[in-house]
Amino acid sequence: MKYNIAVIPGDGIGPEVVRETILVLEKIGELYRHKFNFTEALAGGCAIDACGEPLPEKTLKVCKSSDAVLLGAVGGEKWDSLPGNKRPEQALLGLRKSLGLYANLRPAILFEQLKDACPLKSEIIGDGLDICVVRELTGGIYFGEKGQKNTNFGKSGYDVEIYSEEEVRRIAKDAFEIAMKRDKKVTSVDKANILESSRLWRRVVKEVAVDYPEVTLNHMYVDNAAMQLIRNPKQFDVIVTTNMFGDILSDEASMITGSIGMLPSASLGGNIGMYEPVHGSAPDIAGKDLANPIATILSAAMMLRYSFDLEKEAYSIEKAVKKVLDQNYRTRDIASEGAEVIGTKEMGRLIREALI
Ligand code: NAD
Ligand code: IPM
Ligand code: MN
């Protein structure tokens, strides 16, 4: 079978982690006789430099005519002083919105091999941690009305958090469907003690829950959820939450996996899925062969599973990652005592070698 993949390496460590991932996919193609066709496109800071805008029309066209999108990361200090709608990060929002990717799955799983890299005590970790954060991705404060205006007290800036019933209903349904295949527990995270948008969110999630009597639903305020993720992460199975709360909580949850360099993601909801690591362009380590490519490589596994229905192939990647960790190879971010510390390229090479 032939699959067309749009590849957006982006900025900072993006190109480094994407390169290793493409090579992994190529090896999967050889082993399982698939043809992966990669079309590179510019987005983010590099697109601003080359074409004057973060998300060129041509890039959107490449994505729309592909079967899936693989993205590294965008952003960097060089572009930080540009106006909001011209910044590299705008490319991500544009891609998510135009591809209709309202559901962002961020599975935070602590691999057995990385227990030492997780900052939590072993009695908190117990026999392992496995949380799926389901983040709403095309609504909320990211996409509400925003701007700056003059007031009597000088300039004011504002961003409106707004959710429609339909936006909440569809992401809640997805979360319940995912929970049905897991431990059948959904925690909906909001700030319903303060925010009107959260009160609507909570009501609609409750309505959706009626169709899933087997799933246990609880509601939690976001401040408490942030604390509970550290105090007792085992209480969570599926967390469903808004765009901004999901952004913040998933970075927090990434430490459960040992490092943000481990956390993959899938953005779904439209015809074409987009797959990217949860981390950013990590300017502090860019170009130094220090980045952990595993989050991106595991995102490719999610692509094989969700976009192409290639479960065996996805599993092969996940197994290869675990095998390399079993052999005690670690990038710096997940290294603990006694580990063999290696760089981005070597980690990619070892994972490819472990593929069967
Ligand atoms: P970041 O995720 O880039 O980095 C945070 C910290 O984690 C840094 O110390 C970095 O070195 C480390 N880190 C991140 N990924 C790693 C990896 N694969 N291996 C090892 N260490 C890793 O977040 P930031 O510093 O807040 O943001 C930097 C830039 O990235 C900003 O411009 C931001 O807007 C952008 N950003 C982009 C995305 C994306 O493209 N999806 C996501 C988050 C941030
Ligand atoms: C992420 C990032 C993005 C977000 C930014 C870079 C737009 O932090 O994918 O988690 O906030 O969604
Ligand atoms: Mn983020």
Low-confidence stretches: none
- Predict the CATH topology of the largest domain: Isopropylmalate Dehydrogenase
Number of strands: 14
Q: How much β-strand is present in the residues?
A: 15-25%
Q: Given the C-alpha coordinates, what overall shape results?
A: globular
Distance between the termini: 19 Å
Tally of DSSP helical segments: 12
Could you give the order of the helices and strands? EHEHHEHEHEEEHEHEHEHEEHHEEH
CA-atom Rg in angstroms: 20 Å
* Helix proportion range: 25-40%
How many domain units? 2
In CATH terms, the superfamily of the largest domain is: Isopropylmalate Dehydrogenase
Order of strands across the biggest sheet? 2-1-3-12-11-4-5-10-8-9
Bound molecules: nicotinamide-adenine-dinucleotide, 3-isopropylmalic acid, manganese (II) ion
CATH class descriptor of the largest domain = Alpha Beta
Task: Give me the CATH architecture of the largest domain, please.
Answer: 3-Layer(aba) Sandwich
Structural class: alpha/beta
Average pLDDT, rounded to a whole number, is 98
